[in-house]
Amino acid sequence: MSVADAASGRIAALDLGEAWTGVAISDPDAIIASPLEVVPAAELTEYLQRLVIEEDISEILVGVPKTLGGETGHQARRVFASLDDLKSQFPGVCFIEWDERLTTRVARSRASGGAGGRSKNRGGRRKVRERLDHLAAAEMLQEYLRAKSNS
After folding, report:
1. How far apart are CA 104 and CA 102, in angstroms?
2. CATH code matching the domain that covers 10-150, chosen among 3.20.20.70, 3.30.420.140, 3.20.20.210, 3.40.50.1000
3. pLDDT tier at 141 (50, 70, 90 boundaries)?
4. If we measure between CA atoms, which residue out of 17, 87, 84 comes closest to residue 52?
């Protein structure tokens, strides 16, 4: 499916992780991406069942963490396995694979600019990562929406 092929309804984005998944959603006109929340990976299917119905989700963008060289590594293979499971559980939803290189770094940079820098708490880096998953999903979704509007 090309970026130009659009379905009606909102678009969601997932930044799949082993423990947490960041979720973002578009506005009804699919112009603006907004971070939604970070969901424990074990609760993702149940969460998506509600989200798809309540928010009229027609597409779900899934970030594929490729290497800077564009290769598929261990993390990407893990995402593909999760994506296969999601496709079988949500046959009426169009899933789109999206290169998510650098989206977490961009989200972290934007968040630290607004938050005044790093946390000084012990283990703060991990806590920041958990909070940024939904911001990375929103960054990825906004890239997709821009590409879609330009095609």
Report:
1. 6
2. 3.30.420.140
3. very high
4. 87
Q: Where are the domains of the chain?
A: 10-150
Cα–Cα nearest to 98, from 49, 60, 58, 71: 60
Specify the residue for token string 């880096």. 125
Q: Which amino acid is at 75?
A: Q
Lowest mean pLDDT among 16-25, 61-70, 85-94, 109-118: 109-118
Closest listed residue to residue 48, CA positions, set 74, 73, 12: 12
Phi, then psi, of 24 in degrees rounded to 5: -135, 165
Which amino acid would we find at residue 146? Answer: R
Global pTM value: 0.79
Can you tell me which residue has the tokens 């999760």? 82
Quote the CA–CA distance of 90 and 48 in Å, as a whole number: 9
Which residues, at least 6 apart from 141, have a Cβ–Cβ distance to it below 8 Å?
A: 11, 12, 13, 24, 25, 26, 33, 61
Q: What is the pLDDT of residues 84-102, one digit of tens each?
A: 999 999 999 999 999 887 6
46: phi then psi, degrees, rounded to nearest 5: -60, -40
